[in-house]
Recover the amino acids of this structure.
């Protein structure tokens, strides 16, 4: 059984930075990803990384501002969020799946999510 626990969310002013963490236990799959769901919107892909090679992929909306990385601690993934904007307000979820994908259905296990609220 895989468990994913997100942390690091909170309130931040526009233009600021925040780092989210995802701690995974159990046998995780090939790739880890971050998705987010803003109020009244569908959940959307943010970024993904492979455990082995460190390949990454980003949504256009966060490219150049967010960075996904593997931690030194085993089974930890981070999402460094810089130059945060009001549109980044959402619940952020980490997920693990067998392929590096932007598609929600390709991920088998999900965390409970962590709230990020951006104020002006």
């Amino acid at each position: 059984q895989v468990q994913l626990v997100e942390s690091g969310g909170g309130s931040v002013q526009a233009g600021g930075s925040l780092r989210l963490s995802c701690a995974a236990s159990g046998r995780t799959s090939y790739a880890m990803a971050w998705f987010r769901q803003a109020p009244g919107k569908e959940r959307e892909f943010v970024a993904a990384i492979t455990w082995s090679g460190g390949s990454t992929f980003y949504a256009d909306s966060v490219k150049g501002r967010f960075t996904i990385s593997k931690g030194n601690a085993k089974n930890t993934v981070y999402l460094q969020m810089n130059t945060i904007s009001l549109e980044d307000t959402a619940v952020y979820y980490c997920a693990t799946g067998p392929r590096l994908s932007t598609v929600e259905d390709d991920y088998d296990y999900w965390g409970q999510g962590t709230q990020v609220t951006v104020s002006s």
In short: The first strand starts at residue 3 and ends at 7.
